[in-house]
């Protein structure tokens, strides 16, 4: 296999990795706030695409506005979902919350099917269907949008975490919930904010991908599993590691197509997931966690 | 009547526990404004649970807690801190991966940016070593420095009433002396203090009054010097306390 072909696969891996990274960030944010896995995260990805299509084709809004509406509405759905489904479970029982999110994901995809129908939907590319050539490899311009938007989202999240009072409170809550309460932080607010942000990040990924791959009511679970695998790969709870996990997973998938067969592409995420859970549950970038008593 | 209205903290008939296990039974305890009161007793007597019930980390099953005359029973910790009640918790509960400065900033979560800088300077005045360590993560501090940071973080909320859970635990005598000197300074600033301690002698030497807890109830209370002179107390808590519990 030549260098150009390899580069071609690497670029495809990077593009998919960026998507997984956004979804993985959603898992990580909710995990940091609640200690639970939100299995509805893939549905936020689905809703981001579907609601943007609805705003664009249904309401006739210009594409950039439709995209904003799609992401914003999904963020609202994330907040409402937390408020109605997760918050009432006052004892914060992890297993209960996880099951609630599994049920929630079914409700969300069924609702999407009911509202928007079973057919695949498309959006036009953000700035034309052209391609660029990078050392001989070809990349769709839409992929540049995906990489750019992911980079922006990661930078924004970094800023939020490290430079704002809300982000500091979110980190404090992840370190020690009781200590956070003692300094006046309401963990319920942090959980709601985390769901809203997780939904927005997932929606952004779903929106950015729709011009390339179309979307439908049932695209959530498979992307959800990949984002989950990426988050686990990086080490749950660490945003930087979630991004790295996403990129690594995208690359692994792409290389498996290059060197093995595209048949096994979707199995890679599961193999990675199981492998990490067996051999390195704290993730490749995670330090082993010690609970302080 | 006048003593009631001037109380900083008034706990009456308080019971609490975890699930069906009752840890506190019918506790009455009062701390007057500006007073330093200590709560002593063996490990497992319920001292920490009492402090948690006061700030709202544990829900009381009966009784009431009044703070400067206002009912704060079953108020959440995040609201209680806004009412001027701060707890330096057992085991310090610092935000380990975060810096000293960030821990203090979080302590001032309920305060404005200006209040933060002013209060941080006061904490650095009280514990100068924290100022030298401000960029260092809390987890890398020595035990004494961590305890100072835990006290400092609680002070950042500008509490009127400060609860402390075993601030001397595991520290060298020199550090303990420094922390108790700081508590005296805080009292002179008008902050009311309720101090849980296992080192009964140390606590009674600094406090105005003391309460002795035994298996979930108040066994006796009185002026600190009286308790120090009390034969039963001497025997049980001043002589043998080191051998008790874990």
Could you describe the 3D structure shown?
The complex is a heterodimer of chains A (293) and B (246). Chain A is built from eleven helices and two strands, in the order ααααββααααααα. Chain A has 293 residues and is an all-alpha fold. In chain A, β1 and β2 (137-140) form a beta hairpin. Chain A has helices at 3-34, 41-58, 63-86, 94-116, 141-163, 165-175, 177-182, 187-213, 220-234, 239-259, 265-279; strands at 131-134, 137-140. The N and C termini of chain A lie far apart (54 Å). In chain A, α5 runs antiparallel to α8, α9 (220-234) packs across α10 (239-259) and α9 (220-234) runs parallel beside α11 (265-279). Chain B is of the alpha/beta class and 246 residues long. Helix content of chain B is 39%, strand content 28%. In chain B, the strands form two sheets. Chain B has a six-stranded mixed sheet with strand order 6-7-8-3-9-10, sandwiched between helices. The longest helix of chain B has 16 residues, at 173-188. Chain B is globular, with a radius of gyration of 17 Å. Chain B starts with a helix and ends in a 7-residue tail after the last helix.
Order of helices and strands of chain B: HEEEHEEHEHHHHEHEHEEHH
**Cα-to-Cα separation, first versus last residue of chain A:** 54 Å
Largest interface in this structure: A-B, 18 and 28 residues
Weakly predicted, low-confidence segments of chain B: 240-246
Say how many strands of chain B there are.
Answer: 10
Top CATH class of chain A: Mainly Alpha
Strand-residue proportion of chain B: 25-35%
Radius of gyration of chain A: 19 Å
- The quaternary organization reads as heterodimer
Number of distinct helices of chain B: 11
* Helical/strand content category of chain A: mainly alpha
Count of separate DSSP helical elements of chain A: 11
């Amino acid at each position: 296999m030549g260098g150009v072909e390899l580069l071609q696969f690497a670029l495809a891996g990077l593009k998919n990795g960026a998507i997984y990274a956004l979804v993985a960030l959603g898992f990580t944010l909710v995990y940091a706030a609640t200690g639970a896995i939100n299995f509805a995260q893939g549905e936020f990805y689905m809703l981001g695409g579907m609601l943007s299509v609805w705003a664009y084709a249904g309401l006739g809004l210009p594409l950039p506005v439709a995209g904003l509406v799609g992401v914003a509405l999904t963020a609202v759905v994330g907040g409402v979902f937390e408020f109605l489904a997760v918050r009432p479970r006052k004892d914060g029982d992890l297993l209960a919350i996880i099951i609630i999110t599994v049920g929630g994901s079914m409700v969300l995809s069924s609702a999407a099917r009911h509202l928007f129908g079973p057919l695949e939907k498309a959006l036009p590319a953000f700035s034309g269907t052209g391609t660029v050539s990078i050392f001989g490899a070809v990349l769709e311009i839409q992929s540049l949008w995906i990489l750019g938007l992911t980079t922006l989202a990661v930078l924004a999240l970094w800023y939020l975490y490290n430079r704002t009072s809300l982000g500091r409170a979110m980190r404090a809550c992840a370190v020690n919930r009781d200590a956070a309460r003692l300094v006046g932080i309401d963990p319920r607010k942090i959980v709601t904010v985390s769901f809203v942000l997780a939904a927005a990040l997932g929606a952004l990924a779903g929106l950015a991908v729709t011009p390339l791959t179309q979307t439908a009511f049932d695209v959530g679970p498979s992307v959800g599993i990949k984002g989950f695998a990426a988050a686990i790969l990086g080490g749950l709870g660490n945003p930087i590691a979630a991004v790295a996990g996403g990129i690594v997973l995208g690359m692994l998938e792409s290389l498996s197509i290059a060197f093995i067969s595209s048949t096994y592409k979707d199995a890679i995420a599961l193999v990675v997931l199981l492998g990490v859970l067996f051999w390195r549950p704290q993730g490749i970038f995670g330090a082993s966690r010690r609970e302080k008593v | 009547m006048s003593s009631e209205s001037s109380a900083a903290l008034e706990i009456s008939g308080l019971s609490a526990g975890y699930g069906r296990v009752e840890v506190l039974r019918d506790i009455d305890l009062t701390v007057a404004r500006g007073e330093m009161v200590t709560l002593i007793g063996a490990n497992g007597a319920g001292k920490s649970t009492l402090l948690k019930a006061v700030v709202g980390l544990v829900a009381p099953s009966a009784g009431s807690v009044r703070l400067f005359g206002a009912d704060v029973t079953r108020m959440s910790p995040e609201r209680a801190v806004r009412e001027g009640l701060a707890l330096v918790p057992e085991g310090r509960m610092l935000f380990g991966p975060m810096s000293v400065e960030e821990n203090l900033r979080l302590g001032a979560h309920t305060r404005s940016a200006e209040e933060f800088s002013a209060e941080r300077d006061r904490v650095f005045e009280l514990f100068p070593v924290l100022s030298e360590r401000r960029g260092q993560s809390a987890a890398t501090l020595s035990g004494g420095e961590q305890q100072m940071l835990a006290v400092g973080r609680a002070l950042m909320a500008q509490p009127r009433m400060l609860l402390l859970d075993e601030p001397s635990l595991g520290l060298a005598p020199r550090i303990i002396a420094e922390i108790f000197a700081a508590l005296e300074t805080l009292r002179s600033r008008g902050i009311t203090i309720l101090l849980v301690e296992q080192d009964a002698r140390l606590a009674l030497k600094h406090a105005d009054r003391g309460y002795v807890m035994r298996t979930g109830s108040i066994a006796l209370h009185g002026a600190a010097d009286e308790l120090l002179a009390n034969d039963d107390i001497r025997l049980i808590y001043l002589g043998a306390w080191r051998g008790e519990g874990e």
